[in-house]
Amino acid sequence: MKSRVVFFILLIAVSVVLLARFHVAIVRFFDPDEFAHLHWAWLMAQGKLPYRDFFFYATPLFQWFLFPLFKLPPSDLVLLLARLWEFALYLINVCYIFRITQLVTKSYIVPALSILIFVTFPMTFDKTIDIRPDFLMLLPYLIAIERLLAWPVLTIKRVLTVGLFFGSSFLIFFKIIYALPAAILLLGFKRHSLTVYPEFAEGQESVLQDVAKTLIIFSLGFLLPIGLFLVYLFTNNLQALAWNTFTHTQFVVNTGKQTFSLFATLSPWPLVYVSKGGISIPWLVNMGVWISAIGGIVILWKQHKPFALFSACFAFPAVLFLVFFPAPYVQYFIPLSAIASILSAISIQNLEYRMQNIERKFRFIIPHS
């Protein structure tokens, strides 16, 4: 009974925060990047091709996602609809964070706590409202992780599907490449006896063959959306322009921008995600989440070792990515904040469990003292 009450309280808190975020999404100013994405989508809706007809330095999958909005009658209402379109995408990501946490913890309270942490995460709060491709990139990655955790056994179709989702995530935004090793590691924890290879006997050689075949099938799934995009480029004779964009232009556009500092981003001076620097409640909450997330990895090492290793392998390259590809963008923390929210919720739940045990011991000792 107590667990149900806590669960519903958490869901009510999440609902209140989401309603507040919905309000902010409607009334908050538009970032220049949002207008850029919307303008590119509008150009494509007019029949223009990226790389050739207008300056563009990414893959156009996010613009295709926005494409239906520009088939509506021209109006400033499209701006608000785009925010709502993005908000719906955000909600789907929240649902998958809940589902992944549920699969890891076999609980309902911890998943509810994880999404409450995620929707109130101070560092990324502002950027999760914007019309930008980060959540479209994150969604297929989360779907793939959820499927890997949910499926009891791997088959060729399932491995191909997981690779397809990871490939789609990469194609939407290349920066997610740092999270690929963690995904492959989690894939490796699944039993590598594909049902279409029953003739494989147990043994070291068979296991190695099985792993090799699994990786090949995963790679085929990963390359499938990339191959379809290449067909699009060659069909429209855009391959040379796209190659120049991905190997040169997208690096040039970041030249001369403000230097990014990981320390400055996490430090309260200056606090890059609120208006004023210094010790504040947002900064304290933010640091509490990051620190407790580290504790979550330690706790999961005993409870769910595959996800603990996945989280550590996800976090370490993410930090290296932020260090070696310096850009002053807080949205780069969005994928990491999703995993940190799960780990932080697990850490908080474990702390609450330990405090209950201490309380029970004191109740037992004090009457006999």
Label this structure with key terms.
mainly alpha; 369 residues; 14 helices
How would you describe this structure to a colleague?
The structure is a single chain. By secondary structure, the chain is an all-alpha fold. Helix content is about 70%, strand content about 0%. It has 14 helices and no strands. It has helices at about 1-25, 30-45, 60-65, 75-105, 110-120, 135-150, 155-170, 180-190, 205-235, 240-250, 260-265, 280-305, 305-325, 335-365. α7 packs across α9 and α12 (about 280-305) crosses α14 (about 335-365). The model is unreliable at about 190-205 (pLDDT under 50).
Briefly summarize what is shown.
The protein is an all-alpha fold and 369 residues long. The protein is 69% helix and 0% strand.
* Residue fraction in strands: under 5%
**SSE series:** HHHHHHHHHHHHHH
Total count of strands: 0
Overall shape: it is: globular
Query: What would you call the structural class?
Result: mainly alpha
Tell me the helix content.
55-70%
* Average pLDDT metric: 84
Count of helices?
14
List the helices and strands and how they pair.
Blueprint: H1 2-27, H2 32-45, H3 61-66, H4 77-105, H5 109-119, H6 134-150, H7 156-172, H8 180-189, H9 204-235, H10 239-252, H11 262-266, H12 281-303, H13 305-324, H14 334-365
